[in-house]
Recover the amino acids of this structure.
């Protein structure tokens, strides 16, 4: 009978490692240097949100320009203010995408702020719209996006706050 002990090795390079690890420190660093795994989903979502804010900004600005003098001043002002808020949100998303691509450690907090502020702006928009435009009824089609964003935030905020992948990828 031989008295040799079992040795744990790295999955990639076969270096000896502790039992609780899968990779050696060099291979793990290479693995987390790249954006991968589930992190592609928030990135795609940021691009879709940016498109939605751009589209909303274009529509509200166009509606504001076409209705100047024909609608009450409060409604026209609301359309221009909404266009400005959409522009600010679009610039914020561009900033967050730049943090994402540069793998900055500020990204998790900024992304969580984006999700929470998006929900807050949607709620404020729905309330203000129903107040300023009483002829537009608040229905399920307007409430459902808010519910979907809340569910999305309940999934991704804890992921960005606690994930080892996020903490090791966004380190600069």
């Amino acid at each position: 009978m031989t008295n040799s002990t079992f040795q744990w090795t790295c999955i990639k390079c076969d270096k000896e490692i502790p039992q609780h690890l899968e990779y050696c420190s060099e291979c793990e660093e290479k693995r987390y240097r790249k954006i991968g795994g589930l992190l592609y989903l928030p990135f795609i979502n940021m691009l879709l949100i940016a498109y939605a804010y751009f589209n909303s900004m274009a529509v509200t600005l166009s509606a504001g320009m076409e209705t100047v003098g024909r609608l009450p001043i409060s409604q026209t002002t609301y359309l221009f203010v909404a266009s400005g808020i959409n522009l600010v949100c679009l610039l914020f998303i561009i900033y967050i995408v730049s943090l994402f691509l540069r793998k900055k450690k500020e990204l998790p907090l900024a992304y969580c702020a984006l999700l929470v502020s998006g929900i807050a702006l949607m709620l404020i928009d729905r309330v203000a719209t129903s107040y300023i435009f009483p002829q537009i009824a608040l229905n399920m089609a307007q409430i459902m996006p808010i519910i979907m964003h809340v569910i999305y935030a309940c999934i991704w905020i804890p992921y960005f706050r606690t994930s080892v992948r996020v903490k090791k990828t966004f380190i600069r």
Notes: DSSP finds six helices and no strands in the chain. Residues 105 and 171 are 5 Å apart (CA to CA). The radius of gyration is 24 Å.
